[in-house]
Amino acid sequence: MRxxxxxxxxxxxxxxxxxxxxxxxxxxxxxxxxxxxxxKYNDAAAMTNAGNGATALNQIKEIxxxxxxxxxxxxxxxxALEQAGKMQESMAELEVASSLSPDNQSVxxxxxxxxxxxxxxxxxxxxYNRYLFLYPNADNAKDIKSxxxxxxxxxxxxxxxxxxxGRDNFLDETLLEIAQRxxxxxxxxxxxxxxxxxxxxxAGYLPELLKQAFVEWAxxxxxxxxxxxxxxxxxxxxxxxxxxxTSGMSSTLEEGETVASGTVxxxxxxxxxxxxxxxxSSPQRFKGVCLHEIGHALGMHGHSSDPGDIxxxxxxxxxxxxxxxxxxxxxxxxxxxxxxxxxxxxxxxxTWKFHPFLHxxxxxxxxxxxxxxxxxxxxxGRLADALRLFQEAVRLSPATPEFNAMLANTYxxxxxxxxxxxxxxxxxxxxxxxxxxxLSGNLPKKAASAYASLAEFAxxxxxxxxxxxxxxxxxxxxx
Length: 479
Ligand SMILES: [Zn+2]
What we know:
52% of the residues lie in helices and 7% in strands. The chain has 18 helices and six strands. The chain has helices spanning 35-49, 57-66, 71-83, 87-100, 105-117, 121-134, 141-160, 171-175, 205-219, 283-297, 327-336, 341-345, 362-379, 383-396, 401-420, 424-440, 444-460, 464-478; strands spanning 181-182, 189-193, 227-229, 237-243, 256-262, 266-275. Helix 4 packs antiparallel against helix 5 (105-117), helix 9 (205-219) crosses helix 10 (283-297) and helix 15 runs antiparallel to helix 16. The structure holds zinc ion. Zinc ion binds at residues 1, 292, 296, 303, 313.
């Protein structure tokens, strides 16, 4: 689960100059806020900044009424409305702010965040891109860039997802890529919580909240899932680690991360890492992160597209609504653990099914573990990790077509990035590897289209010889 990028300036106190973080087109002049309401404004802004805007909604509304053209007044009101859980009214207020000053740094940052929270990822990406274009040197530009990348990879997956919003579960979304669950013989699942003593930010109440989160899932699983705390490794195991920074995680914005492994449809091990230094941390919020990561560890590999679910991709700050299990979270877990073997086998991508004999061989079991972790890395947009893990899977088990196919897919994605980076040498190398592994993966048509892309590229580089060669290869595998 990852945290949202926080707005730069939520609601400015009049004493603080606007745009201190960059070239903000909106400038505060003393006349913007009449002397008579300045003290009231500052009080309201201080409350909103402290997260208590909900209790001052009426005062803020009055203030905004007096200064209707003051963009920060609307931003403050929008923020307070969000804190009160009134998302739609908050969005309406942001629209007013946006119409007053569309390219204002704070407006773009807060509007982007609102789209992010409400799951409107396309709009969030567009708004943040505008932000990055106008304010490339802003303090939070790096965070916003990684947020955009994560959202992009989520949007790509969502294209093929059945959108679950409006239904009572999100089984299709969460099991689309990988479908794994713990076998009944593992129950109660052993949980090993490592001692976090010495990790910066660690405190005794954190493991207590984590344990509460395990209890909450178990109590809401209809008796299907249970846990027991252990102090030693075991053949089935959820291991929980503590980290004070995100250096070991896939993105600097993560608050927790889960890596699960096992065999085709079965989980045997999950490793949860929890950040001890979550920005703006509250016990409720931390528990929300724990619930989310445990959800992953229980087999919910993919995210829900509904912001009301704990398995939505973002945590929601001090908004307590999403820090507890929703009905959809509970239904989805129950379904995962009640589907028949045959029904469960239909989930997960078909290309990731394995030949049954693989499980009896130690070497190929290692290959399978690498493959599953590679698939997880691929799904979470960590292409470099995915590449390394799939390469290892193919090295250990070169004759397994599924491993080759996923290695090919990864090379294909890497080549697309090379293309964007205008690195023609790497592009050509990686796209050729994609084509080669598509052939080993029994996917000649995909190889043909990789060769066709190479031909087109060579032609654009005025390299007719290469273009002809790739065309021939493409034709050869077309049929
Ligand atoms: Zn997640």
